Amino acid sequence: MKAHQIAIAAGVLVLLTLGSALAANTDNQTVTLQVTAINEIAVSGDPAALIVNTATAGAEPDTATDNSTDYDITTNESNKRITGAVDAAVPANTELYIFLVAPTGASSAGDVQLTTTAADLVTGITTLAETNNTITYKYYASITAGVVASTTRTVTLTLTDP
Q1: Between 18 and 100, whose confidence is greater?
Q2: CATH value at residue 129
Q3: CA-CA 20 to 30 A from 105: which of 18, 52, 86, 160?
């Protein structure tokens, strides 16, 4: 009988302990959610050297062209544009042009002469993520440019508001 009472007491104790272990306990957290403006542009690298070194007799020198680079773009905003500028003027009697293939739904300005003042290259860019948009450079030199030593310019592409 005593063993029976001990077994019952032990069972009750187990149930009481188990009951408190299984009792629900909750708490709350507040999670803040936000998406900020995302506007990213990246180029694939530097183009090959633009060297004007040929001409047809009786004509201006041939244009040096390179389309070996491209750009990637991501924006979660509407009505963005890409502008372009060089850090310093190109040598006298030469001109540097850039053409950016527009991403889906946007418009390219075509061949744009690069100067130290930012110019629109692509407009109407709206919420997209796109890669491998071709960049084409053209370097013109008139015969009056003479021989121009190798020099570099930094071209800055900016994804911005209109």
Answers
A1: 100
A2: 2.60.40
A3: 86
